[in-house]
Write a structure and sequence with these properties.
Elements (H helix, E strand, L loop, with lengths): L5 H4 L24 H4 L30 H25 L7 H23 L6 H26 L3 H21 L7 H26 L11 H31 L7 H29 L1
Helix pairs in contact: 3-5, 3-9, 4-5, 5-9, 6-8, 6-9, 7-8, 8-9
Length: 290
C-alpha cells in the first residue's frame, strides 16, 4: 500500500539487502501501477497479508532488519525533538507587543527551513537521521511560536486542548488499526487520496482569495465552514496515520533495513503535526465564537 503521507509516497522502503525495493516482484498479480512504485503494494486481493520474508525467492539477510521497537524508538526521538524545540521557542521567543514581529519572523523562517529539509529527505534514497532530526527541530520552532501566539492573543489554554486532542485521535487510530476496525485497502487508499486532493485545492484557493483582497478568503478560517473544514482535516490526518501504520507493518514484514525506521518516524511525525495544527484551528474557532 502506497501511503498518502508524502514521506512514504515519494520513496519506498528498501529491501533487507539495502537495494531499492522497486525490483520486488510478487507471485500474485499486483494492483495496476502499484508494483512499479512501491515494493509493498497490495496484491489483487486487498485483504491479502504480506508474504513472509522467507517466502520471497530472493530473500536474504545481509544486515539487521527493521522491527516495531526500532520504529517506536526513532519516532519517540523525532517527536521528542519537536516537543523540546517547541517548548524552548515558547519560552525564548516572546510574543508580547515588543517581540511578536521578531518571533513571527523566526517562526516563519523555521517553517521554510523545515519544509526544505523535508523535501531533501523525501527525495533521498536513504534516510538521514541528521536531516530528519533537523526537520523536527525547525518544525518545533514553528509550532512553538504559532502555539504561543495563539494561546496569548487568541485562545488562552487552547494549546493543551489541541495536544490532548491529537493524542486522542492518534490513540483511537492505533487501536482501530490494531483491532482491524480500519481496513487499509486499495479502495480506502484511493478515497483518501481523492479527498486529500480536494482538501488541498480548497486550502490553496482560500489562501489565494485571502492574499488578493478577500480578507476572509472562502470562509474557512471562522464560523461553521471553518470548523467543518478543520474537522475534515483532522479526519484526513487520521486516515493518513492509518496508511502510515500499514506502510510500516508491510515494511517490517518484508524485511526493510533497520535504518528505514527513521523514515517511518519521519512520516508519522509529519502526520501528527498536521493533526495538531488542524485541531488547533478547530479549537481556536470554537473558542473565538463563544
Amino acid at each position: 500500500m502506497r501511503s498518502s503521507n508524502p514521506v512514504f509516497a515519494w520513496r519506498g522502503f528498501r529491501r533487507d539487502n539495502g537495494s531499492d525495493g522497486s525490483a520486488v516482484r510478487h507471485p500474485q498479480p499486483a494492483v495496476a501501477g502499484e508494483a512499479l512504485t512501491n515494493p509493498y503494494a497490495p496484491c489483487a486481493d486487498a485483504h491479502t497479508e504480506p508474504m513472509a520474508r522467507d517466502s520471497r525467492p530472493d530473500a536474504r539477510a545481509d544486515g539487521p532488519t527493521m522491527t516495531i521497537d526500532d520504529v517506536v524508538v526513532r519516532t519517540a526521538a523525532t517527536l521528542g525533538t519537536v516537543v523540546l524545540t517547541a517548548a524552548l521557542s515558547w519560552i525564548l521567543l516572546p510574543v508580547d507587543s515588543t517581540g511578536i514581529g521578531r518571533s513571527y519572523g523566526i517562526g516563519l523562517g523555521a517553517a521554510l527551513v523545515a519544509f526544505v529539509l523535508s523535501m531533501v529527505q523525501a527525495f533521498r534514497r536513504a534516510p538521514s537521521p541528521a536531516l530528519i532530526l533537523g526537520y523536527a527541530a525547525f518544525e518545533g520552532v514553528f509550532l512553538g511560536v504559532t502555539s504561543s501566539a495563539t494561546s496569548a492573543w487568541i485562545s488562552p489554554g487552547v494549546v493543551i486542548q489541541a495536544v490532548l486532542g491529537t493524542m486522542a485521535v492518534s490513540a483511537a487510530v492505533l487501536i482501530a488499526y490494531r483491532m482491524r476496525w480500519i481496513r487499509v485497502t486499495q479502495r480506502f487508499y484511493g478515497f483518501v487520496i481523492a479527498a486529500a486532493t480536494g482538501f488541498l485545492l480548497l486550502l490553496a484557493a482560500d489562501a489565494l482569495f485571502s492574499l488578493f483582497g478577500a480578507g476572509g478568503g472562502l470562509g474557512f478560517s471562522s464560523g461553521g465552514p471553518g470548523i467543518a473544514f478543520g474537522l475534515i482535516g483532522i479526519v484526513l490526518g487520521a486516515a493518513f496515520l492509518a496508511l502510515d501504520f500499514k506502510q510500516v507493518e508491510d515494511a517490517i514484514a518484508y524485511g526493510a533495513p533497520r535504518q528505514d525506521a527513521w523514515l517511518s518516524a519521519f512520516g508519522i511525525v509529519t502526520t501528527l503535526v498536521w493533526i495538531y495544527l488542524e485541531a488547533l484551528r478547530v479549537l481556536t474557532i470554537l473558542q473565538s465564537d463563544d
